[in-house]
C-alpha cells in the first residue's frame, strides 16, 4: 500500500497475481485479457476500493479524451444568449456519441490565448474570432487541432459558418422591398483580445457589408435612413436599447436584430408600451432558435442552424484528430418570412 494509504495499481496486480499491464488492460481495454482474469482483477480492485488516477492516465496516454469549446466572453455572459446553447447541444451530441467529455472554456483572466495555452484538451472549437486573432498563433504553438465557428473564412484554418454578408443582404432587401426606409439595426458586440479592451466583430463587419449592398442595390435615391444601435446578447441589455429606440420621436418603421435574444427585448418593450407588431413597427432577426416560437407574431428570421454548427464543428474536429485533412464548412441559410414584417409601400 502506498504511504498515502491509497491503493495503487501495483497493490491490485500483486493481490490478483497479474502484471500491472494486465490491470491497466482491465480498466482501459478489457477485451485484451480473458474474462476470468478481468473478473479477478475487478474483484480485487473493488475490495481495495481502487480506481485509476485520471491524471496519471492522461499523462501515460498523452490524451485527455476531452474537447474544448471556447467562447470569447465570460461564461455568465455568453450563456445569456440561447443561440450559444444550440451550438453546445450540437457539439455535445457528437461528443457523447464518441465518448468525449466537453470542457466549456472562456478567456482566462480576460485573455483568450492564455486559455488555449493552459486547457487540458485534445482539440478545441473556438467561437467568434477574427482571422488575425492571437488564437491562431496560440493553437499553432501548442500544435493543437482546432476549428473555428462563425469566424471569417480563410485558407489558414478550418471554419464552420455561413455567408454572413449574403444572409444579411437577403433580409435587408426584404425590408427595403416592402417599403421600409427608416430601419434600425441592432448590432452584435465586438470580440476583443481581452475582456477589458474594445473589440471588433468579424460577424458584424460581414453583416454590415450585406446591409450596405442591399441599400445600394435598392435605394437608388439615397432615401434610406439606417441607424445603428448596439446591444449585448442578453435580454436586459436588449430591453434597455429597445426602450430607447421605440420611445424616440423619430421611431423606425422596422428593426433588424442580429440575434433572437435581442428580439425578445424589443417584443417585451412593445408589449409594455402598448405597441403592436407589425402595425406599429416591423421586426426581423437572425438565428431562429426553437424558443423563438413563443413570440407572437413569430419573427421574420434568417434561419441559421446553431445546432448544426456545433455538431459539424465537433465532427470535423474529431476527424482532424484522426489525422484527416478537413476543409471549412459553409452552411446554407434561408429567410423565413412571417407576419412580423409589414408591407408599407404606398
Question: What are the defining features of this structure?
Answer:
about 350 residues; alpha/beta; 6-stranded parallel β-sheet; elongated
How would you describe the overall organization of this protein?
The chain is an alpha/beta fold and 346 residues long. Helices cover 43% and strands 16% of the residues. The strands form two sheets. The protein has a six-stranded parallel sheet, sandwiched between helices. Strands 7-6-8-9-10-12 form a six-stranded mixed sheet. α8 links the parallel β3 and β4.
How would you classify the helix and strand content by structural class? alpha/beta
β-sheet strand percentage:
15-25%
Order of helices and strands: HHHHEHHEHEHEEHEHEHEHEEHEE
* Low-pLDDT residue spans: 192-199
- Count the E strands: 12
**Mean pLDDT over the full residue set:** 88
Shape: elongated
**Contiguous helical run count:** 13
Instruction: Strand order, main sheet: write it out.
Output: 2-1-3-4-5-11
Oligomeric status: single chain
- Our Rg estimate from Cα atoms comes to 26 Å
What is the makeup of the main sheet? 6 strands, parallel
Distance between the termini: 88 Å
Amino acid at each position: 500500500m502506498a504511504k498515502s494509504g491509497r491503493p495503487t495499481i501495483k497493490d491490485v496486480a500483486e493481490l490478483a497475481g497479474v502484471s500491472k499491464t494486465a490491470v491497466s488492460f482491465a480498466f482501459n481495454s478489457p477485451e485484451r485479457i480473458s474474462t476470468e482474469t478481468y473478473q479477478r482483477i475487478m474483484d480485487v480492485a473493488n475490495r481495495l476500493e481502487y480506481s485509476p488516477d485520471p491524471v496519471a492516465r492522461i499523462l501515460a496516454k498523452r490524451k485527455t479524451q476531452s474537447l474544448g469549446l471556447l467562447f470569447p466572453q465570460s461564461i455568465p455572459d455568453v450563456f445569456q444568449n440561447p443561440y450559444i446553447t444550440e451550438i453546445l447541444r450540437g457539439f455535445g451530441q457528437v461528443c457523447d456519441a464518441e465518448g468525449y467529455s466537453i470542457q466549456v472554456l472562456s478567456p482566462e483572466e480576460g485573455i483568450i490565448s492564455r486559455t488555449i495555452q493552459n486547457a487540458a484538451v485534445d482539440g478545441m472549437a473556438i467561437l467568434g474570432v477574427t482571422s488575425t486573432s492571437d488564437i491562431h498563433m496560440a493553437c499553432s504553438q501548442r500544435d493543437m487541432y482546432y476549428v473555428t465557428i462563425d469566424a471569417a473564412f480563410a485558407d489558414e484554418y478550418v471554419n464552420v459558418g455561413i455567408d454572413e454578408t449574403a444572409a444579411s443582404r437577403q433580409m435587408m432587401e426584404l425590408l427595403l422591398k416592402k417599403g421600409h426606409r427608416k430601419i434600425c439595426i441592432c448590432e452584435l458586440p465586438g470580440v476583443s483580445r481581452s475582456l477589458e479592451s474594445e473589440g471588433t466583430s468579424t460577424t458584424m463587419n460581414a453583416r454590415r457589408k450585406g446591409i450596405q449592398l442591399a441599400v445600394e442595390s435598392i435605394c437608388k435615391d439615397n432615401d434610406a435612413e439606417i441607424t445603428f444601435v448596439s446591444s449585448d446578447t442578453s435580454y436586459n441589455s436588449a430591453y434597455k436599447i429597445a426602450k430607447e429606440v421605440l420611445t424616440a420621436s423619430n421611431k423606425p418603421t422596422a428593426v433588424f436584430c442580429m440575434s433572437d435574444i435581442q428580439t425578445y427585448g424589443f417584443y417585451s418593450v412593445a408589449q409594455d408600451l402598448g405597441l403592436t407588431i407589425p402595425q406599429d413597427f416591423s421586426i426581423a432577426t437572425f438565428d431562429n432558435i426553437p424558443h423563438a416560437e413563443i413570440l407572437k407574431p413569430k419573427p421574420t428570421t434568417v434561419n441559421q442552424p446553431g445546432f448544426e454548427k456545433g455538431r459539424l464543428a465537433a465532427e470535423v474536429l474529431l476527424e482532424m484528430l484522426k489525422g484527416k485533412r478537413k476543409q471549412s464548412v459553409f452552411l446554407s441559410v434561408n429567410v423565413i418570412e412571417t407576419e412580423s414584417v409589414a408591407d408599407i409601400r404606398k
